[in-house]
Amino acid sequence: MTGRNQDGPAARHHRRRAQGELEGQVLAALREAPGAVNAAWVQGHLGGDLAYTTVVTILTRLHTKGAVARERAGRSFQWTPTADEAGLAALRMRRMLDAESDREAVLASFVTALRPDDEQLLRELLAEAAGDGED
Asked: What residue ranges are annotated as transmembrane (predicted)?
């Protein structure tokens, strides 16, 4: 009987999240907030199945990455988003690039692995960024 329960709804409910998935969920909750909110609000908004300490840990990690801001409110903090999910992904990519010694090789490998439409989009974005500096 125990074996059957492992594949039931409770087991699926507590599946291991993909890397960054929880951070994305916390950022989404903060973007839906009416303003700066505390960790308990985030926990409740996410359905309450996460431990309060887990929510605080994720918020702290997001703060370290520059994706959220915090302001002291009594003994705790009020949190606000400074990045969306795309911004968080960009921060992750930048951190990974910064950790490599051969940046050119990493960027070259990244570009050659892109689909043609993504490569074209990247070219357009780079041209746009280069044009912004020529005022």
From this structure: none
